[in-house]
Design goal:
heterodimer; A: Immunoglobulin-like; Phosphatase 2c, domain 1; five-stranded mixed β-sheet; 40% helix; B: alpha/beta; 6 helices; globular
Amino acid sequence: MVSESEKPLSLERVHQSLVAAQRELETSGQGELVEISAHLEVLIDRVKSHLPPVQEPVKIQNDSITLTNETPPEVVASEAATNPAVLPEPELLLPPIYQSEVEETILVELPAATADAPSASPESAPSLVPAHPEVTNEPEASPAVVAAPTRQTVQPTPLKAPPPPMIKPKSMRLPNGNATRAYSAALGSVLKIPLERLEFLDPWPAGLSLSEQGSVAGTPEVAGEYVVRWRRVGESAVEGEFLLTINADPRSLWKDLPSDRSDPFWKEDSDKKQGGSAVANVVAASVRGRSHAHVGSFRDDDFGMHLPPEDDSNGWHLLCVADGAGSAKSSRRGSQVACNVIIEKLKELLVDSPEGLAAELDARSREAEESEKADSAFWTRTLYHVLGTAVGHAQAAVRKEADALGVSIKEFSTTLLVSIVRRTTKNAWFVGTYWVGDGAIGMWSPEWAAPKLFGEPETGEYAGQTTFFTSEDLSRAETVQKRLRYTLVQDFGFLALMTDGISDPKFPTEQMLKMPAAWATFQEDINAVLTALAPGQPNTDQQLLDWMDFWSAGNHDDRTLLLLVPRAAEVETN
Amino acid sequence: MSRRLPIYLVLDTSGSMSGEPIVAVQSGVQMLVSSLRQDPQALETACLSVITFDSSARQVVPLTELGAFQEPPLQATGTTAMGDALKMVASCAEREIRKSTPEMKGDWKPLVFIMTDGLPTDDFAAGLAAFKKGKWGIVVACGVDGADDSLLKQITETTVMLKDSDPGTLKAFFKWVSSSIAKASASVANNIDLSKGDQLPPPPPEIVVAV
């Protein structure tokens, strides 16, 4: 019997919720949401057509919803003012989440609760014949309630309390939950009524259920605002309701919008490359960050590499990565030009004219570690010549592009991290680097007590401020020199060049870039890639690209990682 | 733990806000939160705190991640202790914002939105001095009706005035705050420094930028 009379009423409630939701979407002003609201309207009409023949009240309620949505204050004010005696109920305690008055909280804050108000009268009086002309006192009471909001605007004095059926359900807000994450909230402490005496009129959100101990627990599946009404067993009136917000899983909210291919500086959303020389294997991958994919913008990162031919055991490995500034309009082009020109110019200086540095290297690399210190003046001078010249050309090339467009080079802002790597004829490894901006160039071997970090990342205490290669005054020798580092080692595990899309999540602080434990963890993290790379397995680049899809909350920048691993066999035999 | 983007909403709940304005502010906060919850970047990084001020200032919601945030009830009463509010936001930020440590990067510089409809009735200068010692990302002051824009300008260059305190206007303001926060979340996700200008979306017609 109860369920019989309940049926049309809950449909009415669905109708009201839909109307409220539709209005919220409509007024959101967000294109997609407004569109959804139009779809909802169709649904609302269908639901409306199934509503019981209480036509008059329902219609008025619709109007009153409009009013409450526009001016919720009056409804609240009027009801709180008119009905102060109805609200407090000794058995209901405040949820522990809130220190302040629940009734007021909910009344004021939730449109759902406010929108429910008008429904309270039919709901609480299902035994009454709904608003029929023959019930003489009904028309008087009903319009008074419904008209309250409008009247209130003109006449702030509290209206006379309407008759008893106006019982407003007590709203209690439970702690918010998150879709796909475990949730538990104790109702017992909130509601000092034995559970067996309660009857819930609405289901708990999918994935949640009420335990015998009185906890709502489980893993909610669908995000949304939920209302679960309850009444005492044997009572017909709804006495209260629980409000519960389930947040969406942020992962489900990320969009993947294509970048504009017609843009003159468009580039692929991801890029990968792998190659090998006689002594080392190299892999690089670069991918557009989720934050860029979400808005359909471009990948600002880039990389470049040149490897010596397979039969050359002492050739130059030229490597670089760059991260175009997110704030700079054409930075994706800046990073691309910088990488291309750097590799090109280094090739010209080191590969196409092999005399000079290579010969010197071979001569001086007898005792790698010793030479590193003893010949520091030589190395600094030589690196300055080679890398300084190359970065000078790279910056000039970027500037030329900016000039051609008549814009500042700042619009092409990019970081730049370069490494030149060569195995000497004395079987030592020489690594020379130039590094401006955030990201990192580091080298690690599990046998080492400390990683080799080729510079200092430059970031501020709070903000992601960094220096850009494009803003460097390369005409000053010390500006270039302070960015240069080199090392000579007998052996190592891997060399990594990365943009901050990788270094931020994997090495959250500058300090961690210097910690052996952090590098050991990083090595473990990419171990599968390194293991595949050492013997130069095909598709290691795809493997790296897949790895780079890792999830790290708050870290959704473009990611670029370039790895060089000495060939295992070579290291063993030599 | 990733870096958070702290946001302080500093709201005038003095008696002059009572009636329509305070309810519009209330629903404005609610709208702001529910719309930001649909934004993955905000949902992952934004943390919200509400400080209200009338005859004195109090932090009604401590800095809370967006997902767990629940809107506080607002009531309008009393005078306009704006100086106390400035002091309060400075001390809350000092206490709640994580500083960088060797193992962990600190939070992003906080966003502060101050909204008032009146003139301070307490020691404004003392509050201002305390506030100025803080490190802020973006600070927006919003004046309604009786507020003095030249006074607000002392708090921040980014001072806006609302045409009136109609619910529609207040709603437009909160919508703008919401998109400002969304934009800031996107900026920090791309490592863009918030204290560099030009980080706010253009304000709607209801909002006039004070010059």
